[in-house]
Amino acid sequence: MESLLHYLVPLPVVLPLFAAGLEFALGIRAPRLHKIISVTTLTVVLAIGLVLLFGSDAHGPQVVHVGGWEAPIGIALVADRLSALMVTVSAAITLGVLVYSIGQGMADRDEVTPLAVYHPTYLILVAGVSNAFLAGDLFNVYVGFEILLTASYVLLTLGGTQARIRAGATYVVVSLLSSVVFLIAIGLVYAATGTVNMAQLAVRLPGVPEDLRLVLQVMLLVAFAIKAAVFPLSAWLPDSYPTAPAPVTAVFAGLLTKVGVYAIIRTQTLLFDGEAVADLLMWAALATMLIGILGAVAQTDIKRLLSFTLVSHIGYMVFGVALTSVQGLSGAVFYVAHHITVQTTLFLVTGLIERRGGSASMDDLGGLAKLSPLLAILFFVPAMNLAGIPPMSGFLGKLGLMQAGVQAGTPLAYLLVAGSVLTSLLTLYAIARVWNYAFWRAPSEGMVAEPGTVLETSEEDDDSATSAYGPEEEAIGPSSRVDTVVGRTATLGGRTVVTTTTFPATMIGATAGLVAMGLAFTVLAGPLIGYSQRTAEELLDRSPYVEAVFPEGVA
Amino acid sequence: MNTPGLILVVCVAVLYSSGFYLLLQRSLMRVVFGILILGHAANLSLLLTDEAITLPPLLGGPSGEMSDPLPHAMALTAIVITFGVTTFLLALAYRVWLGDENDEVPDDVEDRRISRLTEPEDSS
Predict the structure, then answer these.
(1) Residue A530 falls within a domain, yes or no?
(2) How far apart are CA A418 and CA A269, in angstroms?
(3) Structural domain contains residue B121
(4) How many other CB atoms are found less than 10 A from the CB of residue A152?
(5) Chain-wide mean pLDDT for chain A?
(6) Integer distance in angstroms from the first to the last C-alpha of chain A?
(7) Best CA proximity match to A374, nearest among A310, A439, A431, A430
């Protein structure tokens, strides 16, 4: 069995791509088939992720040399503990969001047009994310990034409303800029060492002059920090994510920034000596935490508020990486897994809030706890988890990071520990504001939209109280007002939404499933922390990774 | 460094500077061109990694020498990616322009709304 394990490694990349091709070939005639294919594929990917998770834990990193070409020439795909964990968590999250979006698509009856593009694009996004996680070659990481980014451009501008096009343009330009920086860095790395294979780089880079090595390290760091939204390279995120449809925002917020964090962890441990930029990363982490959360405190729109908390909590992971100790890295790895789940769940719940209350702005919401107790529970649990209330996994993750900081014992590390406590409190404050406004206070007259109210998108200002399911939407009408509030409620296809008191069971089920997954991190915290500890040891040791790719030694 | 290499260096420098200049403009169309030029610059700088870049990346040349094929392969991949994404970005820019015949990148409306909140004393 063990000898067959490594054949599973390419499947998380290949299967979604294959399924996407199949769906494109089927076209719009078979929307039911699309759903079946997508759900089946992601379930299989999740199962493979789990097998790889246990397999790489028991038998060390699994390597496949694609096309049978040995490592320095061919492309290696490597699943070590970190990659396997990331693939598993991302498969679970994407499956949950997919089920949610199927429920939303059925509720909005826009099965034909957007879903014909939505499903295959979503699968390509998953393939790109898996490729970035599994790549054992710096250029292949770049290709993985490009696959997932290109898919994300399409998903972000789905439906083509004016607000989404505007937000999409910002997002595309920023992402392309980071890709250009990454590409230049790859060129420089290749010029300096003559290889882009990461295991070989781990051996060759220590021989490169120190100044040059620092330049390469910082350039890669900048490229990944844009993707991970580390301050000061984070300003694009709160402007581009909230306009997308709820499930798309959820998967972007949960996953895409974490791909950047994964790349930072991988390069700072495997390729470079993390010590060289540790102080820089510490300061960046502190600024990311504090400025992000202060931004969140000022917001009234729940989606924007959550986007700012997302930026802020990236700081925790960067803090863990900057410590360059087993405890720090293990805290960071645990926090990444926890945060992907919780942040995704919160965005999905916000989608449900919009559906019930007619708005994602706290000013227009009130009394939801009485109107929809189920929604309140679904929001409350992950929100408290995000803020880090004991004994939830958010608390455990933060505790692990703070203990690692205290163990490091430098003044800067203590400053970071203080910063993380403050950020945690401010997160609680920001989340409690949402709770008090949207769920707890008595709604004033006409504040919460009645069930059946047609919500405006920024396209349709005044007309059409009944045309919510109109035969066609005018995507680029002249009446569009871009200066209205961004991020209006709309379906996947950009059509308007009608508020309801009842949600499709699939949407509630998917959200509840992800809430439960967040809680499972608490219940399974013991084995998970053990796993992340072993992950961190493996990362800092480097030799398991290198030896797995080059069993006969490196040239 | 040999002459073709030097010419490439100058080209890359000019492309980077004009690319970044265009990227900082207000009009989205200019930003798109900036991205396009930056992409070219990055692809050219991939080729700079090899001293013998003027030779074909093939075995069996007249002098028996060849250039390293890997930068060529990487540049080709990057060109294809840049091409596809640029097409998408052009379509986006066109849609933005169709919206209100104006392709300037707008100010952040939500941020301005938030900062206006602080001016009069707000209840929240």
Answers:
(1) no
(2) 25
(3) no
(4) 27
(5) 83
(6) 30
(7) A439
Q: Which residues contact A180 (CB under 8 A, 6 or more apart)?
A: B35, B38, B39, B41, B42
pLDDT in tens, A37-47: 889 999 999 99
Q: What is the ipTM of this complex?
A: 0.88
Q: Inter-chain contact A169–B84, Cβ cutoff 8 Å?
A: no
User: Based on the domain organization, do A39 and A86 belong to the same domain?
Assistant: yes
Range of the domain at A480: 452-496
Beta bridge partners of residue A62, listed in sequence order: A79
Q: How many domains does chain B have?
A: 1
Same domain, A326 and A383: yes
What is the pTM assigned to this prediction?
0.88
CA trace torsion B18, B24, B25, B31 (10° rounding): 70
Do A284 and A167 share a structural domain? no
Which residue range forms the structural domain that includes residue B90?
A: 3-116
Contacting A residues, span 122-151, partner chain B, CB-CB under 8 Å: 139, 142-143, 146, 149-150
Q: Angle at CA A203, nearest 5°, toward A200 and A206?
A: 130
User: Cβ of B122 under 8 Å from any chain A Cβ?
Assistant: no
- The answer to the question of residue B102 being in a domain is yes
Residue at A190 is within a domain: yes
**From CA A146, how far away is CA A128, in angstroms rounded?**
7
pLDDT confidence of residue A467: 34
Residue B124 lies in a domain: no
Q: Which residue has the tokens 């805290």?
A: A331
Can you tell me the distance from the alpha carbon of B56 to that of B50, in angstroms, rounded to the nearest whole number? 12
Same domain, A79 and A26: yes
CATH number at residue B92: 1.10.287.3510
Model pLDDT for residues A524-540, shown as the tens digit of each residue: 888 999 999 999 998 88
A349 and A226 in a common domain: no
Closest-CA residue of B relative to A459 is: B99
Percent of chain A at pLDDT above 90? 33
Question: Does the structure show a pLDDT above 60 at B107?
Answer: yes
Best of A140, A141, A152, A165 to disrupt the B interface (most B CBs within 10 Å) is: A165
Residue from the list A154, A478, A486 with its beta carbon closest to the beta carbon of B109 = A486
